[in-house]
Amino acid sequence: MAIIFTYRPDQKEQPLVYIAGGFETDCEQYRDQLLYEVLNAAGLDKSGMEVFRLDCGKPCVKTDSDLYSFSVSHSKGFIAVALALNGEAGIDTEISTRSVQPSLINRIRSNKYPLEEEGIDALTLWTLKEAFLKMTGKGLRHAMNKVHISRLKPHTYTAESKVGEEDIRAELISFVYRSHRITLSFSPRRIVSIR
Hints:
The chain is built from four helices and eleven strands. It is an alpha+beta fold. The longest helix has 15 residues, at about 120-135. The chain starts with a strand and ends in an 8-residue tail after the last strand.
């Protein structure tokens, strides 16, 4: 059974993002089960559910009633799926004891505001940037050092970057669940066209 998380920016009445996760071997069947669980938790119609990828590689799910983008991450036997009802979501998970090489951090640290990111531990910084880039649909094709992270309060961040011709900003939350760091990036507006 998957664990269901809900995310409500600014404590709005309805959750805007549903996250299902569980400790299983990564496979298409388990991913579909987690996706089914987030659709069910959101009270969405699951009939006619069809999963596909956009040209940029971002996964989407079509139901009889609508189209939704979602994000998947897996690490060391843990899989997480995030579904945004409105807007976009990106998710990243890593085992919380993973070490990140200093040379990698030097390459991903913001080239515009490096001091703002110095107080963020390496693994958290990596997951913040990866979740943001998954949300945009660009993934690691966009340089991580062009994503600027700012801490708002414990576990809460913002990210911004120019992606193509567009300035994109997102809210992020990052926390440890059991032995895994989970980071969610959320934008209340549609970034990737799925129509």
